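Contributing: when you submit paired examples, paste them exactly as shown. First protein:
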Amino acid sequence: MAVKKFNLYAAKILTYLYENFPTPKDIDTYNFVKKEDMDEEIPMKYYDNDETYINLSMEPDATGNTIPQDEVYNRICSNTIWWLENEGFISFAKPDARATGANYDGFFLRVVITGKGLTALQKGVLCGDESRPIIEIIKEAIINNSMNTIWNLPSILYKALNL
């Protein structure tokens, strides 16, 4: 479930940033994640990026904690943004959290596609008899809900960069 949502959010984030390039945009994952994205049944166990066990049932675990469905999706979206930044496809401002009171748990400031990200998205790939930019294929996949294309997004981006 998490990998499918990662691919969906990566496609939506890259499309949103590409359409607004070069203007940096603030992304609040709590507003970015849409209700229709929460259509899949969530497994009862999930491990966050820091390997913290999260009980996804609405019954409290041994510590009394439960994680609502929308929070799980918000964490996946936040972790997707962190991954895209770590891989060099996007960048965002990292203010001193102690000075600003800000945290990165779902809110990202001045997010923009990097040169590497722009190069990958504008790279042409062969579709049938014609070459089309990857970003156009991604946009079409989102509109048509073509999960096969969205599922392969990371490998498409790396192939475009010859990695």
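Second protein:
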Amino acid sequence: MLIQEVKMSRNKFISLGLIFVMAFAFTAVRETMSQQKKNPEELQSKLTPMQYHVTQEEGTEAPFQNEYWNHKKEGIYVDVVSGEVLFSSKDKFDSGTGWPSFTKPIDKENVTTRTDQKLMMSRTEVRSKKGDSHLGHVFPDGPGPDGQRYCINSAALRFIAKEDLVKEGYGEYQNLFQ
């Protein structure tokens, strides 16, 4: 009896270990793929001209004439290049600027900032960490507890509706909408 229990415990341990290894491997592969900077020709074939201009050439799209400035559906926004999870519709607000604005990223580890001296002023540029895509800028005039306004170009984003999170491989973010 004891030997049987030990074998069952060992098998459960091995099964859990395999599940953990597979989950870790899947995450590592996804991260490695998104960390690889794609070559310009590949990106130009994958992205629209505006998406390429914004994400790779640090461009800006026109206000009030972009896909997500007035978007109200629940879901998450990911980097159009790498698929990194960036923002939630729960943190989106109407800033009156004509661009999608958010009070915070879902995970601050997925975005980086750097000083931008273009346009004869100092601003804080926001980029995706793994994809290194230009997303927009962050300003200290937002309504949230941290006072941040992440002013993001729609062309840098891909929206995943809450009902499609599992299908699109982002099931771990369903809890944001429960």
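If you have annotations for the second protein, write them as plain sentences, like these:
The chain is about 30% helix and 20% strand.
Residues 40-177 form a domain with the Metal Binding Protein, Guanine Nucleotide Exchange Factor; Chain A fold (CATH 2.170.150.20).
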